[in-house]
C-alpha cells in the first residue's frame, strides 16, 4: 500500500530517476504541486528540468519513481492518456506543428468537434489566433506560437498546465503578456508547473519554487522567502535577481 | 506513331497505379522510419488475392472491395509482429522487411503455385482514342486510381486521423503529450501503406501478369518515385510516379524496357545530384 496522498496535491513526483544511455540524468527528483497552486522549477542549463517534465509525463523512459495525479497513481498509465486526465503540456520550443493550420493545431488533441464555448474563451484570451485560423502554424511569430501552444492545452480544459520555458526566445515586451496570461489561467483554477530561466517572471507567477541542481532538487520553498535570499539565488542560479 | 501513343498512355495509367503504391511506401517511411523492402510484395499479394477472389466468386468488384480491406488487416498484423519489435532501427528494418519479402513470395508460391496467371478485365471492349482502339478497362483503372489518390489526400488533410498522422510524422512526442495514440497511429499507417499497395494490386491485376515475383519489379520503381518526388513529399511522390511511368512508356516504344529503367535510374541520379530534396520540393504535406 502506498501512503495516502494528501487530497490537495494535484501532481506529485516521487523519487524520479532517468537515464540518457548510461548517464544518470535524474537522481531522485521529488516535487509536489498543490491543487490550484503555481509552482516554479528553476535551475541552470542542463540540470534536468525538461527531463523531469518529460519523464514525469511518460514521454521518455523512467528508471525509477512514481507519479500521482490528483491522488491517483498514474505511473503505469499509457502516455497518451495523460492529456485526457487534464494535464496540459507546453514543451520547450513550443511544439507547434508548422505545416498544420492554426485551427488544426488548436484542436489537435480533441477527439470530437471543439466545444464552441471553450473555443470562444480561447479566442477571447488570444484574439490574434482567431484572425489567423487558416494560416499555417509555422508562419506565426514566436509569441503567437506560444499563445497557440497554450491555447491548444486550454482547448482540453486542463486541471494542470505544465510549461517548459514559455518565455524563451520571446521579445521582452511580450514576456509580461505571457506572464499575465499564465497568472490569469492559474487564477481561473488551473494548477501550474512552470520551468523558467527568467527567475523574476517565475517568482511573480509562482507561490512555490523548486531549484534543481545536477539531477535532483537542491532548494524548495515559498517564492516570497526566496526573493529575500539573493545569496541562494546566486548560489544555484548564478545570477542576482536585479540582473535577471 | 500509334504505338508510341498507346505506350505513352499505358505508361501514364500505370503511373497512376504506381502512385498509389509509392504513396504507401512513402507514408511508411515518413512515419515509421522503415525502409520497407517488402512493399512490392504487398502489391503482389494484392494481385494474387484479386485473382483468387475472382477465381472463386467470378466477381471482380467484390475483389476490388475486399483486397484493400485484407491488405489493411495484414498490414496491421505485420506491423505488430515484425515492425514493432525492431523499434525503428533503420538497419534492422532492411533485414526484417527483406525477410518479410521472402516469406510473402514463398507463401504465395507454395499456396498458388509458381505459374504466372492472367485475370480478365471486368470491363471488356475497346474504345477509339485518337485513332487507336484502346482497352476500355485501362481507362477505368485510370479513373479509379485518380479517385483513390484524391481520396487519400483528402483523408490526409481533412480527416482527424490524417491530421494526426501528419502531426505524428512531424513531432511524435508532442503529439503523444496531446493525447494522440502514437503507437496506434504507427500501426494504422503501416496498415494503410499495405492497403494502398494491395489496392494498386487489385486495380493492376487485369492489365499485368499475376506472379509471385511481380513485386520485385515494382519495388525499385516505387523507391525511384519517392526519391525523385522528394523524401516525405507525398504530392511529389505521386507526381514523380506518373512522370516516370509515362517516360518509361514512351521509351519502351523505341527501345527495350531495360533501357527505359536505366533512363529512370539516370534521371534519379541526376535529381539526387542537382536537387537532392527532390524535384517537387516545396509542396510538402
Ligand atoms: N535526448 C538526449 N540525449 C542525451 N542527453 C540528453 C538528451 N536530452 C538532454 N540530455 C542531457 O541531459 C541533461 C539534462 O537535460 P535537460 O534538457 O533536462 O536540461 P534542462 O534543465 O531542461 O536545460 P535547459 O534549461 O537548457 O533547457 C543535459 O546534460 C542534457 O545535455
Ligand atoms: Mg529544458
> How many strand elements of chain A?
10
CATH topology of one domain in chain A: Rossmann fold
**Terminal-residue CA separation of chain A:** 45 Å
> What's the quaternary structure here?
heterodimer
State which percent range the strand residues of chain A make up: 25-35%
State Rg of chain A. 18 Å
| CATH homolog superfamily of one domain in chain A | P-loop containing nucleotide triphosphate hydrolases
Total of DSSP H or I helical runs spanning 4+ residues of chain B: 11
Number of strands of chain B: 2
What is the strand arrangement across the widest sheet of chain B? 1-2
- Which runs of chain A of at least 5 residues are low in confidence (pLDDT < 50)? 1-6
The average pLDDT of chain A is 92
Strand order of the largest sheet of chain A: 6-7-8-3-9-10
Number of helices of chain A: 10
Supply the CATH architecture of one domain in chain A: 3-Layer(aba) Sandwich
| N to C succession of SSEs of chain B | HHHHEEHHHHHHH
Amino acid at each position: 500500500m502506498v501512503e495516502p496522498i494528501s487530497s490537495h496535491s494535484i501532481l506529485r513526483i516521487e523519487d524520479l530517476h532517468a537515464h540518457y544511455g548510461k548517464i544518470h540524468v535524474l537522481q531522485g527528483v521529488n516535487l509536489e504541486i498543490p491543487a490550484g497552486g503555481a509552482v516554479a522549477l528553476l535551475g541552470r542549463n542542463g540540470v534536468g528540468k525538461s527531463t523531469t517534465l518529460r519523464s514525469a509525463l511518460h514521454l521518455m523512459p523512467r528508471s525509477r519513481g512514481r507519479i500521482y495525479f490528483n491522488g491517483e497513481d498514474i505511473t503505469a498509465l499509457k502516455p497518451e492518456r495523460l492529456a485526457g486526465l487534464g494535464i496540459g503540456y507546453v514543451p520547450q520550443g513550443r511544439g507547434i506543428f508548422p505545416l498544420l493550420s492554426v485551427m488544426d493545431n488548436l484542436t489537435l488533441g480533441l477527439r470530437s468537434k471543439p466545444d464552441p464555448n471553450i473555443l470562444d474563451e480561447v479566442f477571447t484570451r488570444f484574439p490574434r489566433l482567431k484572425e489567423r485560423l487558416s494560416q499555417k502554424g509555422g508562419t506565426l511569430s514566436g509569441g503567437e506560437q506560444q499563445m497557440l501552444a497554450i491555447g491548444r492545452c486550454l482547448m482540453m480544459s486542463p486541471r494542470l498546465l505544465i510549461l517548459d520555458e514559455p518565455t524563451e526566445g520571446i521579445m521582452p515586451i511580450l514576456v509580461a503578456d505571457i506572464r499575465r496570461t499564465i497568472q490569469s489561467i492559474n487564477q481561473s483554477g488551473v494548477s501550474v508547473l512552470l520551468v523558467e530561466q527568467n527567475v523574476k517572471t517565475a517568482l511573480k507567477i509562482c507561490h512555490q519554487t523548486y531549484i534543481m541542481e545536477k539531477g535532483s532538487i537542491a532548494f524548495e520553498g515559498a517564492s516570497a522567502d526566496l526573493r529575500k535570499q539573493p545569496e541562494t539565488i546566486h548560489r544555484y542560479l548564478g545570477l542576482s535577481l536585479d540582473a535577471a | 506513331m500509334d504505338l508510341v501513343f498507346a505506350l505513352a498512355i499505358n505508361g501514364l495509367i500505370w503511373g497512376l497505379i504506381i502512385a498509389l503504391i509509392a504513396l504507401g511506401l512513402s507514408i511508411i517511411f515518413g512515419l515509421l522510419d522503415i525502409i520497407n523492402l517488402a512493399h512490392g510484395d504487398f502489391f503482389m499479394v494484392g494481385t494474387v488475392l484479386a485473382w483468387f477472389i475472382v477465381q472463386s466468386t467470378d466477381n471482380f468488384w467484390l475483389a476490388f472491395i475486399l483486397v484493400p480491406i485484407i491488405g489493411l488487416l495484414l498490414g496491421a498484423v505485420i506491423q505488430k509482429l515484425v515492425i514493432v519489435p525492431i523499434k525503428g532501427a533503420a538497419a534492422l528494418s532492411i533485414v526484417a522487411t527483406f525477410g518479410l519479402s521472402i516469406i510473402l513470395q514463398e507463401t504465395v508460391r507454395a499456396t498458388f503455385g509458381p505459374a504466372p496467371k492472367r485475370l480478365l478485365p471486368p470491363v471488356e471492349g475497346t474504345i477509339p482514342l485518337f485513332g487507336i482502339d484502346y482497352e476500355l478497362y485501362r481507362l477505368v483503372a485510370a479513373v479509379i486510381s485518380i479517385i483513390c489518390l484524391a481520396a487519400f489526400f483528402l483523408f490526409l488533410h481533412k480527416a482527424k486521423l490524417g491530421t494526426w498522422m501528419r502531426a505524428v510524422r512531424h513531432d511524435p512526442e508532442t503529439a503523444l503529450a496531446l493525447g494522440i495514440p502514437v503507437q496506434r497511429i504507427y500501426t494504422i499507417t503501416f496498415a494503410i501503406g499495405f492497403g494502398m499497395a494491395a489496392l494498386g494490386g487489385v486495380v493492376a491485376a487485369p492489365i499485368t501478369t499475376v506472379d509471385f515475383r511481380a513485386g520485385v519489379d515494382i519495388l525499385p520503381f516505387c523507391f525511384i518515385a519517392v526519391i525523385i518526388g522528394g523524401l516525405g513529399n507525398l504530392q511529389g511522390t505521386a507526381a514523380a510516379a506518373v512522370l516516370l511511368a509515362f517516360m518509361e512508356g514512351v521509351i519502351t516504344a523505341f527501345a527495350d524496357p531495360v533501357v527505359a529503367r536505366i533512363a529512370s535510374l539516370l534521371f534519379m541520379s541526376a535529381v539526387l545530384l542537382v536537387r537532392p530534396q527532390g524535384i517537387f520540393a516545396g509542396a510538402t504535406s
